[in-house]
Amino acid sequence: MLFAWFTLGGLILLFSPQAVTSRFQFAFARLFRWPLSVGRQMPLSVKTELPIENEPGRKEIQYQNYIVNLEEELRQKNNAIQQLTGFRTRLRGLEGAKLVPADIITASVEGRRGELIINRGSDDGLMKDLFVLGDNSVIGTITELAARTAKVRLFSDASSVVQVNMAGIEINMLMQGDGGNAAKIKMVPVKHKIKIGETVMVRKKAGYLDIAMIGGAVQQCKRDDKNPALWDITVKPVCDIARLNNVAVIIMNPAENVKTGSRR
Amino acid sequence: MRWPRFAVVVLVTTLLQASWVDTIAVTRLNVAPDLLLIVMVFLAIRCDVTEAIISSFALGFAADIVASGFPMGPRIISFGLFGTALAYMHRVITIRKMPHEALAILVIGFCAGGLAYLLALLAGRPVEHWGFGVLAGTSIYSAIAGPFLFLLLDWTMRIKSRRRGPGPPTR
C-alpha cells in the first residue's frame, strides 16, 4: 500500500507541468545556497594551488572582452555605413538594453551539465532565451524561470546550440556545447583559416541581442575525424565561469513596468 | 532505522551530489558516481522492506531535485521500484560481500537509469545529457565506489547488525 501511494505521488510529479515541478529544484538551490557554494569552491582550492604566471587577472579579462566587444561594434558600424542599408541602428549596441545583475546561487561548470541558477526570475522581467553576460562576455541563455530564480544554460552544456561567427569568415556557424567546459564548431570548410585564440562572436539575434558579442575564443582547431574537409574547432569561454559570483542578463527591449532590476 | 540520522545522510548526500561530485568525474563524458543510488542500494539491503520503500522513494525524490536536465518524477519511481524490488530480493539472496554489493549497485544503476529515461520519454519531456555511455559509466563508477562508501554508511547509520541472510536473525 505504501509503495502504491509513493508511486502515485511520483506519477503525479512526472505528469505535472515543469513550471510547477522545477520550483522544487529552485527551492532546494535557494535553501541550500551556502553549502552548495562551498561544494562549488572545493575543486577551485585544489586547482589554484599553483597560479600560472602571466595569466591575466579577472579585471584584465573584463577589459579585454570589453575591448573586443567595442571593436566588433565598430566593425559592424563601419559595415553598416559602407553598405548604406538605411537601417537605423543604435550607436551603442547595448544602449537601450537593460542589464539585470544577478548573483549565482549554484553553478555546474565542471561536469557534463553546464548551468547556473541565478537569483533573478520572471519578477525581474526575465524571459526564456535571454542572453547572459559574465565578465562582459556572453556565457549562456536563460532556459527555465521561476518568480525569483532562473536557470542559465551555459554554452558548454551539451544541449546548447548558438549561432556564432568569426572575423573574416562569412558563413553561419553553429557552436554546440561539448558537455565539458568548452564548445565545438563544426561544418566549417578547411579553406577558411582559423587561428588559435581567434575570438568567437555570438551572432546578433533580433529581440535578444542587437549586436554580436564575444562568446569565446578558439582553443584548438583540427581536421574533423569523420570529414577531413571540415574543421573541428574547440571554443573555450573567455572568462573563468567557475569563479564568477555574479552575471548580468541582457533585456534588449525592456518593458517599462518591470518590477525590479537596475540599469548599469 | 534512525530516521533523523537518515535525514542527515540524505541531505548531505544530496548536497554532495549537487555540488561536489562533478569534481571527481572522469573520462571525456564526465562520468561521476551516483551517491544517491549508492545510499539507496545500501538501505535496500540493510533495512526492513518498509524502511527500504520509504528511503528509496525519498532518495528518488532527492535524485530528481538534483538531476539537471531530467524532469521531476522519473527517478522517484525508478528508485522506489528498484529499491523495493532489491529489498524483497534480499530476503532470498544474501548480499554481503563487496563484489556482490558492487554487482547490485551496477544492476540497479542500469535498471533505474534506464527506467528513468523511459519514464521521462513517456512524459514527453526531452532528456538532456543522457546516453548509454553516461549510464554505463555512472553505474560502473558507482559500483566501484559503492562498497567502500558502504563501510562509511555502516558506521554512520549504525545498522550493520540488521543484515539479513542465512543464519539466525540478529535482531
Count of domain modules of chain B: 1
Runs of chain A with pLDDT <50, length 5+?
44-51, 84-91, 257-264
Between the first and last Cα atoms of chain B, what is the distance in angstroms? 12 Å
| Rg of chain A, Å, rounded | 20 Å
Description:
The complex is a heterodimer of chains A (264) and B (171). With 264 residues, chain A is of the alpha+beta class. Chain A has helices spanning 2-14, 18-31, 33-47, 58-83, and strands spanning 98-108, 115-118, 131-134, 137-145, 150-154, 161-166, 169-177, 183-189, 199-202, 213-223, 230-236, 246-251. Chain B has one domain. Chain B is 65% helix and 0% strand. The interface between A and B is large, with 40 and 40 residues.
Topology at a glance:
The complex is a heterodimer of chains A (264) and B (171).
Chain A: H1 2-14, H2 18-31, H3 33-47, H4 58-83, E1 98-108, E2 115-118, E3 131-134, E4 137-145, E5 150-154, E6 161-166, E7 169-177, E8 183-189, E9 199-202, E10 213-223, E11 230-236, E12 246-251
Antiparallel strand pairs in A: 1-2, 1-12, 2-5, 3-4, 3-12, 4-5, 6-7, 6-9, 7-8, 8-11, 9-10, 10-11
Chain B: H1 3-19, H2 35-44, H3 49-66, H4 74-89, H5 98-122, H6 132-157
Protein traits:
heterodimer, A: 264 residues, alpha+beta, Thrombin, subunit H, 2 domains, six-stranded antiparallel β-barrel, six-stranded antiparallel barrel, 4 helices, disordered C terminus, B: 171 residues, mainly alpha, 6 helices, 0% strand
